[in-house]
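Open question from group meeting: does this chain pack into something compact, or does most of it stay loose? Before anyone orders reagents, we agreed to write out a predicted structure and look at it together. Recording both the input and the output here so the notebook holds the full record.
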Amino acid sequence: MFIISTILLFVALTTPIYSEPIIGIEDCGSQGFLAEVRITDCVEVPCKVAGANITFAQLKFELKNPYDLIRTTIKFIDDEGEVLLGVNHRASEWPSGHLHTTVDRMNLMKYSGKSGSLKLEVLGFPTMNVEICALVAVNIA
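Structure tokens returned:
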């Protein structure tokens, strides 16, 4: 029984908690179609996120062009500039005209007490076309 309880607790602590799709996302030049963005515990902008926790971002989108490799990036933008929080390369077939979902994690602890935007991008390789670009206003506690 102890082992089962431990496993269930581990799953509960490591599973991202998403809210409903966020209302008020700003498109920043998507070529493809951005269906929705979800960020841990956020339903509308500005998102209030806890800097002490790992935060997850989920994108649902359709690509304008097909790719064998895409790159997702997350950046934090404030008055001091733009900081890269995470980059993921995903090798697979990424056909156009199909709904795709990606999940990325970010650590915002260094930015506690700041306000700004999260810039979420999906780029196609090798052309580096910006297929998806979304700005999400955030307040980091």
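Observations to bring back to the group:
The CA atoms of residues 50 and 141 lie 5 Å apart.
The helical segments are 2-14.
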